[in-house]
Amino acid sequence: MRQKVSCNTTISKSLLSEAKTLNLKLSEIFESALAQEVARKKSDIWLKENHDAIAKHNQNIVEKGTFSENTGQLND
After folding, report:
1. What predicted TM-score, i.e. pTM, was given to this entire model?
2. SS3 category, 6
3. Distance between the two ends of the chain, CA-based, in angstroms?
4. 52-75, pLDDT tens digit by residue?
5. 20 to 30 A from 72, CA-CA: which of 1, 8, 39, 56?
6. CA distance linking residue 8 with residue 11, whole number of Å
């Protein structure tokens, strides 16, 4: 089980009131939304760091094709 820690944050008073009225579990919602945002940000960073290699790989495929294009199709 992951260790939990508390954190302070600010939120619109009316939104918090409405969420409480709807019995929403704020910790679960916050953790889920934060996990999604962390994953999205890490993906953005990875794509930015690897942009040149991806572009080079794609250009190589355009120029030379894929490995399997040169081997032909397998017969059933």
Report:
1. 0.70
2. coil
3. 49
4. 999 999 999 999 888 777 666 656
5. 56
6. 10
Place of tokens 């894929």: 66
Amino acid, res. 20:
K
Query: Any idea where the domains of the chain sit in the sequence?
Result: 25-67
Residues 6+ apart with CB under 8 A from 74: none
- At 55, which amino acid appears? A
Sequence-distant (≥ 6) Cβ neighbours of residue 30 within 8 angstroms:
9
Kindly state the DSSP code that residue 65 receives in the 8-state scheme: -
Render the burial of 49-67: b for 16+ CB within 10 Å, e for the rest: eeeeeeeeeeeeeeeeeee
- 35-44 per-position pLDDT tens digit: 999 999 999 9
